[in-house]
Amino acid sequence: MGGGNGQKAKMARERNLEKQKGAKGSQLDSNKKAMTIQCKVCMQTFMCTTSEVKCREHAEAKHPKSDVFTCFPHLQK
């Protein structure tokens, strides 16, 4: 039966290395990359999952004199 202190310490070090490899980076980085929708009037960015309703709300609240399609040309079909 093995399992002396040296072996236990080695196994613990290996487990800790595996745990440290699991951390792949910050969620903030991927959030910044997902900001792909941009208002063409004020250049504010929105997440790629932003709905058409939220885009329309932004256009009506922030740019009442501009058309919704001026702010967000991707909404035109």
From TrEMBL:
Gene3D superfamilies: At2g23090-like (4.10.1050.10). Pfam families: SERF-like_N, zf-met2. Residues 1-31 are annotated as: Disordered. Residues 38-75 form the At2g23090-like zinc-binding domain. InterPro entries: At2g23090-like, At2g23090-like_Znf, SERF-like_N, ZNF706/At2g23090_sf. Residues 3-35 form the Small EDRK-rich factor-like N-terminal domain. SUPFAM superfamilies: Expressed protein At2g23090/F21P24.15. Residues 11-21 have a biased composition (Basic and acidic residues). Signal peptide: none annotated. This is Small EDRK-rich factor-like N-terminal domain-containing protein.
